[in-house]
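Shipment paperwork, digital attachment
Item: protein structure file
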Amino acid sequence: MANITADLTPSKADTRLTTADGKPLKAALAAAQSHAKRRAFFLVLPLLLFILVTFVLPIGQMLHQSMYNPGFTLHQDVISKVKTPIMVNVRNWFDTNPPGSEPDEAAYAALAKDFLLLDELRAAGSVGTRVNYDLSGTRSLFTKTARKADKLEPPYKAALLEVDEKWANPEVWAVMRGASSAYTINFYLAAADLTRDVNGEIASVPDNRALYVKLFIRTLLLSVLITFLTFILAYPVAHLLATLPLRYSNLLMIFVLLPFWTSLLVRTTSWMVLLQSQGVINNALVASGALADDNRIQMMYNQTGTVIAMTHILLPFMILPLYSVMRPINPSYVRAARSLGATSWTAFRRIYFPQTIPGIGAGALLVFILAVGYYITPALVGGADGQLISNLIAFHMTRSLNWSMAAALASILLGGILILYWLYDRLIGIDNLKLG
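Attachment content:
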């Protein structure tokens, strides 16, 4: 009887679950999940490639450009169509002599030899431009010396000083040392109003040349002010839209969205017409007697004009997140608090307002990020006092052609935005962010 029972007992292999075609169920489930993951990956692959090409790669290129400038080390030979190393002899002298070393006859001989190649390649302008980024007035020094390179004879120090006495300036050699490497952090130092002295040590620039830190602080403060003003103006408007019947709120929402259907340039120039000294607002105040004709308010080409115009332009970006959060709030919550003895202020402060915090955070984050990077409005309305850091980035991109400096400023701005995003996630939580 025991033997019969043993024969009828199923083995371990027989108890495994299988599919209809005999495959183990666990392996079939794993294959199905793998197939689903591959299908999902190929579905999102176009979007992933689009993000890589239009977002990740440009940012990576910007970060690379902020530390890379080959103007002192390579030049495109228009004859041979190849990159020709330039200033090789001076770079070798820099490699064998520590920072702060006084240029000797060997250094001037190396410089004279390099200028012969610069004159042949006609690359003195590009090299001088690279050095001019760190020390103004050096481009003309390089081009003038290159024109006389074939006439330089030993002793080279006396010959170069005869061309221009600036070659005896230790600061020129210190800047050349910093520019001798294609990869450098000098652009980030300049963006923080720092520089390297003749000994290679990091030092602050003179006060009359300190510009970027002030612009970063001004951009930050004005962006915070604009974010606060948009919140003060948008909160009652969003509350009104959320509490009105749907047929009325939809009608009013058209007026909120109407600016999106108007060109940004048109809206900015409209504010120029309103805010200028002979504009609509000043003329109305003078006509009403509230303001004397010789005491017109200056609201153009200063920070006041920038704040007013940008607050109006960015106001919808605060209203819409607030409205999307306020609309689903059940009004019976506030009525229940009032029925239990709470005042209107207490019911608002403890019941209604906490439920709108996700919309406040989303609107504030959106408005602040847009304000930090705004360009057109400050350029047209702000003047010199209302310029933001974005206007200086555009200047280096289009006017001075110092793309590495522009990339360094943009990278610092990007880093500040990422820090703000991280702080928001730590304090409020990105999961509570509601844009709609």
